[in-house]
Every structure is written in structure tokens, then in C-alpha cells.
Amino acid sequence: MKVSETFVSLQGEGLNQGKPCFFLRLAGCNLRCAWCDTEYSFEKGEEKSVDEIVKEISESGLSYVCITGGEPLLQKKELLPLLEILSAAKISVDIETNGTIPFSELNRFASICMDVKCPSSCEVSDLSLLSSLQKSDCVKFVIGDEADYMYMVEVLASAEDLKAQVCITPVYGTETKWLVETIISEKLPVRFQLQLHKELDVK
């Protein structure tokens, strides 16, 4: 498995925001989002076996793991054995994905956080994958401007069978007051989040 990095920090976003977490960042991505903050993971990586990764997780002493990227599902075949081991060990796993690769076969092992790409990212997610999300999953929208917000509203309106909880995160460094006021005035059933790790200046 090609690994960009592993580290321990607080989960900065999603449904488990604030929890101590072991991060497994896999290398490689099939998108090039305009505001990406992990470009170093596109190519750079070290080959590690499942056993090596399990050993690192065990030594961390944590029972919560976030698998991210890049786009981790590019290595979905290699991920499955790892997920089976972690599930058997009662270790909770989140997988962050850009919503371009099917993930339904992973739902029994992990919670999915699908990052729906809005116009400012200059990329597009496969919205048909929203129907594969479960109640324990999360769909995230990174909002950079009003056009992104309107796109999110349209997506949510059309996703009538959406089971997952919705998180909204502003593009880091952009104005947030208008977004907060709009969410409140529109009474949207969403969770507004700042990227906690960036606000705290931790990894």
C-alpha cells in the first residue's frame, strides 16, 4: 500500500471532530481540486504492508482511525484486508473520499465521509454515490462562495433518499459570517464546521 504519511492528531472535521485519531494518509489522487491542501500526497509515498500499518495503529494506543488521502479508494483492493483486521479488533474507522469511486462494499467496515466537490474546486463528484451512504456516514461540502452554496442546496434538494448527516466547511481563509447567517436563516439541517486542526495549528 502506498502511504503518504501516518500521524496522530485530533480529527479536524466530520462527525468525529475533536477526537484523538490515528491518521493513515494514502498517496495518489484522481482529482486536482483548486484549494487542495494536501498536494504533497499526490505522488509522494512509501510502500507499507498491511502488517506494518496495523503495528503502527496498535502502537498508537488509539481505537479510532481515519483513512484519507489523496484519494484512498484508489487503493481499495489493498484496503480491504486492513479494514477486515481493524473491524475484528473493534477499531472504529472513517474513510474520507472525494466521491468518484464506489464504496458500498466498505460500509460494513467503516464510516464514509463523502466530500462532494463544489464548483470552486473545479472538480466534480459522482452524485449517484450519495444513495450508498448510510446513517452513520457523512457528506461534506466545502464552500468557497455563494455559487458553491447554491450548488449544495440543489444537490441536497435532489437527494431525497439521503441518509447521511451533512457537514458544511468553508474553504480555509474565506469569509464565514455570510455562510453562518445563511444556514441559520434557511434553517438547514446541516452541521457547520471550521477545520479544527487548522484553527488550533496542529497537524
Sum this structure up briefly.
By secondary structure, the protein is an alpha/beta fold. The protein is 25% helix and 24% strand.
What does this molecule look like?
This protein is α/β, with parallel strands linked by helices. It contains five helices and nine strands, in the order E-E-E-H-E-H-E-E-E-H-E-H-E-H. It has helices at 50-60, 76-88, 146-158, 177-186, 196-199; strands at 2-10, 20-26, 46-47, 64-68, 92-97, 111-116, 138-143, 165-170, 191-192. It is globular and about 50 Å long.
Strand content: 15-25%
Low-pLDDT stretches:
none
Assembly classification: single chain
What count of helical segments does DSSP give?
Answer: 5
Span between N and C termini?
A: 22 Å
How would a textbook summarize the main sheet?
9 strands, mixed
As a percent range, the share of helical residues equals 25-40%
Would you tell me the overall average pLDDT? Answer: 95
> Which word captures the global form?
globular
Helix/strand order, N-terminal first? EEEHEHEEEHEHEH
User: In order across it, which strands form the biggest sheet?
Assistant: 3-1-2-4-5-6-7-8-9
